[in-house]
Amino acid sequence: MESASSTKETEIEVDALIEALIDAASSDVGIEETVFGFNESNQQIVEEKDRKVKMLVYHHPACMKHHIEDHPEQPNRVKVILDAIRAANILPADAFVEAPRVEDEHALLFHGAQMFDRLKRIMSACQEFGKEHRLDGDTAVMEHTKEAVYRAAGSIVAAVDDVFSRDVDTVFCCVRPPGHHATREKSMGFCFLSNAGIAAKYAYHKYNKRVAVLDFDVHHGNGTEDGFINDENMFYGSTHEKDNYPGTGEEPSASEKDSNQLYQRIVNRTLPPGPASQSVFKRKWKEIIDKMILFRPELVIFSAGFDAHDSDPLANCELVADDFAWATDIVLQACRDIDESNPPPCISILEGGYDLDAIAESAVAHVKSLLNGYPPINHGGDEVQALKEYLDTVL
Ligand SMILES: [Zn+2]
Predict the structure, then answer these.
(1) Does residue 19 belong to any structural domain of this protein?
(2) How many Å lie between the centroid of ligand 1 and the Cα of residue 265?
(3) Are residues 299 and 203 in contact, defined by beta-carbon separation less than 8 angstroms?
(4) CA 303 – ligand 1 centroid, Å
């Protein structure tokens, strides 16, 4: 999935699209006001409060419509995961909620104004005229991209509100396109906006919360790191396959890991290809969690990519579904270590993962772990009964 820079011809093509849209605007079909009402309220979500739903799963039909032919980042990814979560029968029907759109002003907490404006104009033009335009070799905008992008980012921003101002314990956002390769200034690697990064900045902006994004996708989340590197209120931890796309996220030397202040909150750990990846993943994920505990986040966002799975076609690691559950469990345990009476909430958003069977099984394992979040096992008494009572309140 190597990228190719935009050629001169594609630049001209974009400019032509934008020009066409500007022309359309002058005949009463404006760019900014055409299709989307960005101020749509979240009333539907607010009403969930009274239903005692503890976990939400965001999704949206628009996430099924962004479709580039023969592309591994395909609509069925979210379909098979949603179907599997429903089939697992672990959540009530009203836990599944349609994602709202992200507000422009919230996307701009992470992205540069120029980048965001250009992306928005390209997406609007493609939507308006039914065109497809490649931003790079593997990242393309088509007619339905804009709505999917807005819903994907909107889902995880809404999840922040859910855990801080509503009666919700945890959220899984089953949305696409993914986000962790989108930098402040560039869409790339199947990603348009930094979904997790926007939500993290929003959590600090609105709730004054320090945020850790934990990324077990097999690729390095260069975009999330880009937005966090100069922000001391943000922590980014990632395990990713060495030398895979996008080629960033080099692991520091042993001495740098301890001595360099930046590496206490930007924590990159690389995995080897092949059978060793599983044991190395567990060892290095623990290293990340140790540093996260010292950072003391007040919110954890999982960048949940399942492409480190043994079956994935875009990588060479050999994890299985239970490994993602394990990774989730130890993060939740760490959150309890940080503040036993008021652990930081954990929310999650889908990133990569391209084998449909593997991502369905892995996502269910991850969601089950999130759902079992904070059983009161450290408070003595009958642990099994306590867990059962906890689950009864959820289910
Ligand atoms: Zn990936």
Answers:
(1) no
(2) 21
(3) yes
(4) 10
For residue 102, give its domain range. Answer: 53-369
Q: What is the pLDDT of residues 294-317, one digit of tens each?
A: 999 999 999 999 999 999 999 999
CA of 22 to the centre of ligand 1 (A): 36
- Contact 291/299 with Cβ under 8 angstroms? no
Structure tokens at 118: 């250009």
Asked, for residue 381, whether it belongs to a domain, the answer is no
Mean pLDDT over 65-88 rounds to 96
What's the CATH number where 156 sits? Answer: 3.40.800.20
**Residue 200 and residue 233: Cα distance in Å, rounded?**
9
Q: How far is the CA of 21 from the centre of ligand 1 (A)?
A: 33
Contacts of 155 (CB under 8 A, 6+ apart): 58, 59, 60, 99, 100, 173, 175, 195, 349
Kindly indicate the confidence band of residue 321, based on its pLDDT and cuts at 50, 70 and 90.
very high
CA of 28 to the centre of ligand 1 (A): 41
- Rounded distance from Cα 219 to ligand 1 centre (Å): 4
Residue 37 Cα to ligand 1 midpoint, Å, equals: 31
Residue 384 has pLDDT above 70, yes or no: no
Expressed in angstroms and rounded, the spacing between residue 17 Cα and the centre of ligand 1 is 30
The string of pLDDT tens digits covering residues 260-277 is 999 999 999 999 999 999
Name the pTM for this structure: 0.84
